[in-house]
Structure formats: C-alpha cells, structure tokens
Design a protein that fits this description.
The chain is mainly beta and 178 residues long. The chain has one helix and 15 strands, in the order αβββββββββββββββ. The strands form three sheets. Strands 3-5-7-9-11-13-15 form a seven-stranded parallel sheet, with no helix packed on it.
Amino acid sequence: MKKVLVELNERELKVLKRVLNENEVIEVDLIDKYNYKEYIGKTVKVTGDVDLIGLGLTKIPINFTEVGGYFNCSSNNLTSLKGAPRKVGGVFYCSWNKLTSLAGAPEELGGGFYCHRNQLTSLKGAPKEVGGGFYCWKNQLSSLVGAPEKVGCDFYCYDNPLKSTKGKPEYIGGRFEY
C-alpha cells in the first residue's frame, strides 16, 4: 500500500473529523435514562437493551443501528421513529406517544411490537414479520393494510375505527382481536 502525506489547514481538518465522527458506530452494552445524553447525535449499536421510557422526548436523539435486546421508547411525545434501530433482537415498544406513522420502525424484529395508544392512521412501515405479538389497539386505524405478514403470537387491533380487516396478517400464532 502506498502512503501519501496530505497537509490540511485547520478548517479542512475540522470538516474531516466531523465526517469521520458521523460515520463512526459506537458499540455499547446498554442505554438508559442515566447515560443516554452522552450518545445524543451519535450512531450507536447496542448489544443489550435500550430504555428511553418516559423522558419527554419529541424525537429519538440517537441514531441506532441495531439493538440486541429490547428497545423501549414508550411514554414520550415522539411524532416519528426516525433514528430507531433497523434490527431489534427482542421486543420493540413505542406505545403512548404521538406517532401517526410507523415509518422508521425496525425491519427485523425478534420479539413483539407494541405501538398501542398512539395516533396511527396506517400500519405502513411496520415490520414484515414479528416474532412475538403485535399490539396496535387504541389508534386511529381504518384499515390493517401495512400490517406484518406474519405474527408469532397475538394480534390486537381493537379500539380503532376499522372499516374492515383487509390487510390483516396471513399468519397469526395466537389470538386475533379487533
């Protein structure tokens, strides 16, 4: 490999450092209310759990790549799932927020998916397959279009102004309540 010496002025060095930091993925064991502030604005992979419950957040302040355990951002004021992990090994909780869409939700999920008590008008953006149950009750859903194709346990969508069950999962491993 050929090595090249490059001279940078102070401004160019700052830009280079910023770009390198933006692309850096930090790996940590756990993120919760005690340590999340040190990761704000960073890209993080978490081998364990993420607990951001009840912090008054209006957006997910960290860009998560994947979470090995559960991811809980319930009981905040979130209007978007931007920054949520693409892959979650356990359960994903985003209940009790102000979400109108599931855009940005994990694509891969090992456990259940809890999005009840939001303001969802569509399930578009939901994972295609959920290892556990899928709980979308108490929203503003008029259809189930966009729901996962396969749900390993229960699928609860009651207390929604559903006009039909069109779009319901092809496979539900437990109870279907609407």
